[in-house]
Amino acid sequence: MNYNLYPRHDVLCIDMRSFYASVECMKRGLNPQTALLAVVGDPNRRGSIVLAASPALKKKHGISNVSRYFELPEDSNLVIAPAHMGDYLTVSLEITKLMMHFVPKEAIHVYSVDELWLTVDGLNHLYGSVYTIAEKVQSSIREQFGIDSVIGIGDNKFLAKVVMDLHAKQAPNGISECRYEHVSDKLWPIDIEHIWGIGSKMKRHLNRMGIVTMGDLARFSHDHLKKRFGIMGEQLYWHAWGIDLSPVTGQFTKTEQKGYGHGITLLRDYTEDEIQACLLDLCDEACRRARRDEKMGRTIHLSIRYTDDDAQHFSRSQSIDVPINDTMEMYHVCMQLFERFHTEGAHIRKASVTLTNLTDDVGTQLSLFDDRSHMNQLNQAVDSIRERFGSTAILRASSYTSGGIALDRGQKIGGHYE
């Protein structure tokens, strides 16, 4: 591979170690590296998931981020912390602001609440080598927030990410580097299941083709991969050679909205009667966001999954002649789809609605029998109240029934209580 044909950048991929747990430790004046602390989604539910565990808890008791609350050990030093998503988002935002001391915002790509990329091209004359820059970034986060981080360094975002996942987390100082010339040594011996972007389904397909490691993938026919998997196969091939042409700057550019959706995994089984209030709340939120952006949609999607895998899950859509962003109009279409495709008697565990096929909200088409202008005024009044006083300041009566979800979700961020 002639790497001289491909761009080289100085990209850092930064991951905050045990981020949620570290924030909770700092709030309590505990050392994130020595404290035994678990962040639990909802301590009132024994089956609630452990969202994060401190490094010491992971090492001593083998607790991971897929453990359940009831699996936590009986340890007198163990601290149980309810999740506070608002705090984590606030700290994440402050860390991003700290990164702007090193680079402009266009050189920052936030990947998740605890992970981001920095492009530090041309900063050598200010801070020294890219490795030194990584150490300075790491030190700044630790000094200001008390949170340890690991950093991968690469010629592009893919290399920085995978070397961070595979090597930096095991490195004594939490920093590892992978350039094009290091790909055969640092990437090719690794099993494909450990590579970012390759899920279990893709792994099974590749294994059946005799591809087990990244080296196998790199030596496989490019044309065969592209024919079998399309653009995804082509991307897999180039990633195996460490090549990633995705932009490393300008990530703050807003992308075009394709649709407005809302979904939920229910905490218990819902009946046919209860799901009606749930769907109304979901439509309310999807349409509120559409109205906020002055958009309307012609196609409504409904997806339902049941508790029993033998039941016929479904995802169906229906297009209408006149674009809408009114909650009740979207809800009526969803109920038509539900009544048509629902498996009678089956208990519901997941539901989602989406408004797509968007157009600008440039006016309202009136009919002889429905005065939509009055409904638009009502929607605007309700949206204004919620914008000013919070999402639960005014709710439909159905939201207070056993099937309503708006009241509980209004108290949460990212599915967890603030």
Automatic annotation (TrEMBL):
<dbReference type="InterPro" id="IPR053848">
    <property type="entry name" value="IMS_HHH_1"/>
</dbReference>
<dbReference type="InterPro" id="IPR043502">
    <property type="entry name" value="DNA/RNA_pol_sf"/>
</dbReference>
<feature type="domain" description="UmuC">
    <location>
        <begin position="11"/>
        <end position="199"/>
    </location>
</feature>
<dbReference type="Pfam" id="PF21999">
    <property type="entry name" value="IMS_HHH_1"/>
</dbReference>
<dbReference type="InterPro" id="IPR043128">
    <property type="entry name" value="Rev_trsase/Diguanyl_cyclase"/>
</dbReference>
<dbReference type="Pfam" id="PF00817">
    <property type="entry name" value="IMS"/>
</dbReference>
<comment type="similarity">
    <text>Belongs to the DNA polymerase type-Y family.</text>
</comment>
<protein>
    <submittedName>
        <fullName>DNA polymerase V</fullName>
    </submittedName>
</protein>
<dbReference type="Pfam" id="PF11799">
    <property type="entry name" value="IMS_C"/>
</dbReference>
<dbReference type="InterPro" id="IPR017961">
    <property type="entry name" value="DNA_pol_Y-fam_little_finger"/>
</dbReference>
<dbReference type="InterPro" id="IPR036775">
    <property type="entry name" value="DNA_pol_Y-fam_lit_finger_sf"/>
</dbReference>
<dbReference type="InterPro" id="IPR001126">
    <property type="entry name" value="UmuC"/>
</dbReference>
<dbReference type="InterPro" id="IPR050116">
    <property type="entry name" value="DNA_polymerase-Y"/>
</dbReference>
